[in-house]
From TrEMBL:
Keywords: Isomerase, RNA-binding. It comes from the Bacteria. Residues 16-74 form the RNA-binding S4 domain. GO terms for biological process: enzyme-directed rRNA pseudouridine synthesis. Coiled coil: none annotated. Its EC number is 5.4.99.-. One of its GO terms (molecular function) is RNA binding. This is Pseudouridine synthase.
């Protein structure tokens, strides 16, 4: 069922283009906002508009939003390259390969950790939304490394709480451009969706609190290998924070990385790997740590940059 929103134009959007204003108000992309305007689903003071029209503060905006599409269900099929680091009746820890999302989402047609586990005959907790049952944290599709999935309901609830309360140790290795100064530090900057509405995230005033600790492990001529400890777990957090301090992950073209350096090293995605995961077992309370070795593409590029230096 369509969702009709009626509201006065906020004074802060006075003079803003209609498509840009819709993107900010409703979290849409500019192209999606333009589609709604072209379809006649946006009225200003009772009249249809074009996307380049300007709003005036205090005007009346009426927008008909289509119903959200149904979330996709996981496809149970084995995922090549996904290995099991640990498994018992309550949890399974995997080493996630590149090009694999944590769970199905709208717009993603590739393999998922959840589908891979189901396809290989593993059980997962039934708690949570159907498309992400058992998922207690996520890695980006092109970020590799250690990831835990809940198999029992008690593990799901206790792990969700542990991640929320920051009682899980998440360590990443990132090859970033240049040399951070200082060599060890903390980035404390709020993150939210990028104002462009293009799917990126950014450091923005009023965003969600986000804290990243980093330490330089090795410095090369053009880049540095960092160990990163996440205190919070925002979407794209490491990628956004490192880009914000002008040291984007090598290969992360979405967040401003140098394509020439990426090509020279043969890096076709962000150089970012979840190397270690430490947590209390949800039923025994035992502290457990799991380590995921670098995949071949990251190992190869690291060897190349060492040779250059």
């Amino acid at each position: 069922m369509a969702d009709v929103r009626s509201l006065p134009v906020p004074e802060g959007l006075d003079g803003e283009r209609v498509d840009a204003a819709l993107a900010r108000l409703f979290g849409l992309s500019r192209s999606r906002a333009a589609e709604l305007i072209a379809a006649g689903d946006v009225l200003v003071d009772g009249r249809t508009v074009v996307k380049s029209d300007r709003l005036h503060g205090g005007g009346w905006l009426e927008v008909t939003l289509p119903p959200p599409p149904a979330p996709p269900r996981p496809v149970a099929e084995p995922v090549p390259g996904m290995t099991i680091l640990y498994e018992d009746e309550h949890i399974v820890v995997v080493s996630k390969p590149v090009g694999v999302a944590a769970h199905p989402t709208i717009g993603w047609n590739g393999p998922t950790v959840l589908g891979g586990l189901l396809g290989a005959g593993h059980t997962v907790a039934t708690s949570g939304a159907a498309e992400r049952q058992g998922i207690v944290h996520r890695l980006d599709a092109n970020t590799t490394g250690a990831m835990v999935v809940a198999k029992s309901e008690i593990a799901y609830s206790r792990l969700k709480r542990a991640f929320k309360e920051r009682r899980v140790d998440k360590r990443y290795h990132a090859l970033v451009q240049g040399h951070p100064d200082p060599l060890r530090g903390t980035i404390d900057a709020p993150i939210d969706r990028h104002p462009s509405g293009d799917g990126r995230f950014a450091v923005v005033a009023g965003g969600r609190p986000s804290i990243t600790h980093y330490d330089t492990l090795e410095a090369f001529r053009a880049a540095s290998l960092l160990e990163i400890d996440l205190e919070t777990g925002r979407t794209h957090q490491i990628r956004v924070h490192m880009s914000a301090v002008r040291h984007p992950c090598v290969g992360d073209l979405l967040y401003g990385a140098d394509p020439t350096l990426a090509a020279r090293l043969g890096v076709k995605r962000q150089w970012l790997h979840a190397i270690r995961l430490g947590l209390e077992h949800p039923t025994t309370g035992e502290w457990m740590e799991f380590e995921s070795p670098y995949p071949e593409d990251l190992t190869r590029s690291l060897e190349l940059i060492r040779q250059e230096s």
